[in-house]
Amino acid sequence: MVYMFLRNYVVAPAVNMVCRPTVIGLEHVPAHGPAILASNHLSVPDSIFMPVAVPRQVYFLAKSEYFNTPGIRGRIVAAFFKAINQIPMDRRGGSASAKSLSAGGQALAEGKLVGIYPEGTRSPDGRLYRGKIGVARLALETGAPVVPVAMIGTDTMQPLGSRFPDPRRARITTIFGAPMDFSHLMSQHGDHATLRRVTDEIMAAIAELSGQQTADVYAADHKRRLAEEKTSSFKAQAREVAQATRERGRSVTDAVSQQAGSLGARLHGRSHEETDEGGPAPTA
């Protein structure tokens, strides 16, 4: 109820008036019954523009961090996501992710519309990364059709690292493709090779709609490598600065030592000159 109120009377009117997004292929989204909306993920506004485009409520598999962040702010965020019926998605894989997917499967069994980002995280560079097999597992366990979705322009509106979107930067387009039916493969929902093949088919359909260049690696792995490279580069720069500082320190020390030695030599020479000019001391 909260979701539809916010969508119909707050978010959708504001988004449509300010951003004037384009929606293509909405007829491919079933008016009733279960379906999986599988979308690329470019930026935070994806989770605003795609639900706004669909008249039905979309139950998103949202990352679990939204629900378990400590502190007052974390509790407020968690309460908001629960109020709009979002489903916590544990992205660590294994049994934790399977439990999250079962919640998505339950929503589909109840005839709901479930949204998922198969890449698992936002693209760091605009490319479409390898999909995780959770989307295929949902499709094969429930028999729900998969509607490929392409979000275009959201990464320009709010580039990675930006705190707020700027509607002046881009016009947003949401494209819904023809539903993909994998119900004939339901008996193979436990076969990893089948899940991988179905996931790749879904990602290929998304790529065709979005026109993105594809990358055959997981986005999370690529982000991890980028972070490691950045850390390694920072450490190398820190070592270079430390080495340069030590070298400058040695140079200063050598220069001071040379100056001290030169000054000492001059003082020593002057002392001898004064002694020579005075001559030997008189005797009684």
Automatic annotation (TrEMBL):
GO terms for molecular function: 1-acylglycerol-3-phosphate O-acyltransferase activity. Pfam families: Acyltransferase. SUPFAM superfamilies: Glycerol-3-phosphate (1)-acyltransferase. Residues 229-284 are annotated as: Disordered. It is an enzyme of class 2 (transferase). GO terms for cellular component: plasma membrane. The keyword RNA-binding does not apply. Its EC number is 2.3.1.-. The keyword Acyltransferase applies. GO terms for biological process: phosphatidic acid biosynthetic process. Residues 35-154 form the Phospholipid/glycerol acyltransferase domain. It comes from the Bacteria. Keywords: Acyltransferase, Transferase. This is Putative acyltransferase. It comes from Kocuria rhizophila (strain ATCC 9341 / DSM 348 / NBRC 103217 / DC2201).
